[in-house]
Design brief:
CATH class of the largest domain: Alpha Beta
Shape: globular
Order of helices and strands: HHHEEEEHHEHHEEEEEEHEHEHHEHE
Oligomer: single chain
CATH architecture of the largest domain: 4-Layer Sandwich
Largest sheet: 6 strands, mixed
Helix content: 25-40%
Radius of gyration: 22 Å
Distance between the termini: 40 Å
Number of strands: 15
CATH topology of the largest domain: Metallo-beta-lactamase, Chain A
């Protein structure tokens, strides 16, 4: 209603008052994460205003004399899975791209102790490509040890990473482990985030501009394009990407005005790493669900809370709406429900088909009555003991 069809209401407001209003969507599914983040940012608005002025002065400092150069230092995630991080340096600036954790028996962190990185106060900025913990999991530790600069990411990345980081702490405490930071450092991270929309270009250092583009991986995931100097060099770091349209997102952006260097993730990128098509994956899922429900059973689908779970939800809703499988309850683990609620706050990041359903036809598949929130232990017991057929989407643990 506030925006109007094709932005008509916003354009009329802008025409009449001469100002461009900023509309913040209320999630269609109430989200504790989104509510707390927006409330916290209102609380620290004056502090952020002073800090942003300081960042502006730092960005607009004079560049030094001498030859221009660009260096990319691999800190983690190169020839391995996890702890993704890289340092992009010039003679006048240092930008950290991602800072993730590695989940394995020899779990570790990026090489943040290198002289090129330290002290953290010397970093001009952090660019966060997306919210998954192998890219975001150690960003709060930077604030624990002195970093006070900006984090550039999309608004969905800010919100989803907050959700996942808080859960990361809960899991660590629950397993009796010592977490590398606490919730206060996550709040600092949120306070220092400067959200960017896809396609917006902004100065992040005296000699560097940043543009984020859709990576097609999860909600708000970005390819980070850096324009260095006055046409000195252009480099893009893909983060995790999907070069194919999915049930949720458009395919990764690939039209750059100029690009000399591309650093691209290569998970499932070997010559023989063929993934089933969307059509084939949907057919296989339908067959499994149909076979299980015909026997009066339950289907347990293990999924990550962010990304894959929402894709499965879209497919299940479509199958049931079209009568391809019986309509049964689809129970969602509480973490999945909250992540989905965050998705409903940012429908503009979804693909054109979903945007058309939501904006033009008023049909949001995430709001389907088939989806049920399992938000407490007693509800889980009820789902298990209920003899009726059902589908359960659950995260690990």
């Amino acid at each position: 209603i506030a925006i109007g069809k094709h932005g008509a209401n916003l354009n009329e407001i802008k025409r009449q008052i001469g100002w461009a209003p900023k509309v913040i969507r209320t999630p269609s599914i109430p989200s504790k994460t989104v509510g707390e983040i927006r409330g916290y940012l209102r609380l620290v608005a004056d502090e952020r205003k002073s800090w942003l002025k300081k960042i502006g002065r730092r960005i607009n400092r004079e560049v030094s004399e001498g030859d221009n150069w660009v260096r990319l230092t691999a800190l983690g995630g190169f020839r391995e899975v996890g702890r993704s991080s890289a340092l992009l340096s010039t003679k006048d600036s240092k930008i950290l791209v991602d800072c993730g954790v590695r989940f394995s028996q020899d779990a570790g962190s990026p090489y943040l102790n290198l002289p090129e990185v330290l002290p953290f106060e010397s970093l001009d900025a952090v660019v966060l490509t997306h919210a998954h913990l192998d890219h975001s999991g150690l960003v709060p530790i930077l604030f624990k040890y002195g970093f006070d600069g900006p984090i550039y990411c999309t608004a969905p990345t800010r919100d989803l990473s907050s959700l996942l980081l808080i859960d990361y702490l809960k899991v660590a405490y629950g397993e009796g482990k010592t977490a590398p930071y606490d919730s206060s450092h996550i709040r600092e991270m949120v306070k220092h985030c400067i959200p960017l929309r896809y396609g917006d270009t902004t100065d992040i250092a005296p000699d560097m501009r940043l543009t984020l583009q859709n990576a097609g991986h999860i909600l708000g995931s970005s390819i980070a394009h850096f324009h260095v100097g006055d046409g000195v060099h252009n480099i893009a770091l893909s983060g995790d990407m999907k070069y194919e349209k999915t049930w949720l997102f458009s395919s990764a952006h690939d039209h750059f005005p100029r690009l000399e260097t591309l650093v691209m993730e290569s998970t499932y990128g070997k010559r023989n790493d063929h993934q089933p098509s969307r059509k084939e994956a949907k057919r296989l899922l339908r067959e499994i669900v149909q076979r299980s429900l015909d026997r009066g059973g339950k289907v347990l689908i293990p999924v990550f809370a962010v990304g894959r779970s929402q894709e499965v939800m879209i497919v299940l809703e479509q199958l049931m709406r079209n009568g391809n499988v019986p309509k049964v309850p689809v129970y969602l683990d509480g973490m999945i429900w909250e992540a989905t609620a965050i998705h409903t706050a940012y429908p503009e990041y979804l693909n054109a088909n979903l945007r058309n359903l939501i904006f033009q036809r008023g049909e949001n598949p995430f709001l389907s009555e088939i989806f049920q929130n399992v938000d407490h232990v007693e509800k889980r017991a009820q789902v298990i003991e209920d003899p009726d057929p059902a589908i359960v989407l659950a995260t690990s643990g």
